[in-house]
Design brief:
The chain has 11 helices and 14 strands. It has about 375 residues and is α/β, with parallel strands linked by helices. The chain starts with 8 loop residues before the first helix and ends with a helix. The structure holds pyridoxal-5'-phosphate (PLP). Pyridoxal-5'-phosphate binds near residues 62, 158, 187 and 199.
């Protein structure tokens, strides 16, 4: 059997390596390492794929979030509502800019921020909502967009885990994750569904003025060279990464379909095991399975993880600690017990290997391993 990994980038490279090599070679020959033609071409191709007017690439997904908040003109003290169950980047940049993070519980089923929770957290100082499309499934964007209109709030969608997922609105029209709010941000970290071979990120928007502001801020606040209109940052996608991403974008839908097939296999294997809760598939979103995340009942999650480790089956806990009780965020004044849903999820979740190159033999080995754990007593 091929060696099991959470994300198998080596097998992927074996599959598409020839094309990748050509793409990188051509950048090496042109020596246009920064702002080479591939960067603009990739931005245009991603615009077409997502159906969004502007894609502005940057150095990583964390920068994308920071640049989005700067471009919207958020000021110290402004409150930004986001989920307590996410990767730290989302909240880190809020704090870095002197804004006030207000954390909200996720829904236990979808893992995504609760719209009802957002409503309750709004104060006169609230300026923005940052929904995260966690594990490959969209947050309830139609509800969230309504709340934002009612209260005159900005929406920044953190799409790092859901590039390519579609959100279905009641008008029946699908909208791609990241293209619904004022700004969408994403990451091309190697393990993401659309990943490069290093760091990379992008911002998405339909708004011309915001797009111009984002371009300026991500390039030292300059529109005309050496004339600086905004306080900016230096955050670019380099040309080699853009060339890699142009190749990988062509495969994104087929890779996402392979992930879905693996998820279907897992679901079928686990659905009748009473101690396992398979991931909920919500009606208003497609699922591109950035992660395949189970919930384990009866406090046996850690024991299962250890058991799988002995069988050389990798697994990960996304996420083990709620942001509300992270040491770095103690200044926010939250304490244990404030977020019972998040705290429970952190003790129950476990993610299994998920990538487009999982084969039948591997899936069988993984699912048998998990089921064997629950059979033995
Ligand atoms: C990966 C990730 C980011 C950060 O992306 P980087 O490119 O690693 O900076 C932000 N938010 C979420 C939800 C992520 O999963």
């Amino acid at each position: 059997m091929k060696e099991l990994q959470m994300v198998d980038l080596r097998s992927q490279y074996e599959r598409i390596g020839a094309e990748i090599n050509d793409a990188i070679q051509s950048v090496l020959k042109s020596a246009a390492f920064i702002k080479g033609p591939e960067v603009k071409l990739f931005e245009e191709e991603l615009q077409r794929y997502l159906g969004v007017k502007h894609v502005i690439t940057c150095a990583n997904g964390t920068d994308a979030l920071q640049i989005a908040m700067m471009a919207l003109g958020l000021k110290p003290g402004d409150e930004v509502i986001t989920t307590n169950f996410t990767f730290i980047a989302t909240v880190e940049v809020v704090a870095l800019l002197g804004l006030k993070p207000i954390l909200v519980e996720p829904e236990e089923g979808s893992f995504n921020i609760s719209a009802a929770g957002i409503k309750k957290a709004i104060t006169p100082r609230t300026k923005a909502i940052v929904p995260v499309h966690l594990f490959g499934q969209c947050a309830s964007m139609e509800d969230i967009a309504k709340i934002a209109v009612e209260h005159n709030l900005f929406i920044i969608e953190d799409t790092a885990q859901a590039t390519g997922a579609a959100c279905f609105f009641s008008d029946g029209k699908p909208r791609k994750a990241g293209t619904i709010g004022d700004i969408g941000t994403t990451s091309f970290f190697p393990s993401k569904n659309l990943g490069c071979y290093g760091d990379g990120g992008a911002l998405l928007t339909d708004n011309d003025n915001l797009a111009a502001k984002i371009r300026s801020i991500s390039n030292h606040g300059m529109k005309v060279r050496y004339y600086h209109d905004d306080i900016g940052v230096n955050s670019r996608l380099d040309t080699i990464q853009a060339a890699v991403l142009r190749v990988k974008l062509k495969y994104l839908d087929s890779f996402n379909r392979s992930r879905l097939e693996a998820a279907d296999y897992y679901d079928r294997a686990f659905m009748n095991c009473p101690e396992i809760i398979i991931p909920e598939r919500i009606k208003y979103s497609s699922h591109i399975f950035h992660q395949y995340t189970l919930k384990i009942r009866n406090n046996r999650r850690n024991e299962l993880k250890e058991y799988l480790g002995k069988l050389n089956i990798p697994s990960m806990i996304y996420y083990p600690v709620p942001l509300s009780v992270q040491k770095a965020f103690s200044f926010m004044g939250y304490k244990e017990g404030d977020f019972p849903v998040t705290e429970k999820l952190c003790t129950e979740v476990i993610s299994l290997p998920m990538h487009p190159d999982l084969d039948k033999e591997q899936l069988e080995y993984i699912t048998n391993g998990v089921l064997k754990f629950f059979e033995k007593r």
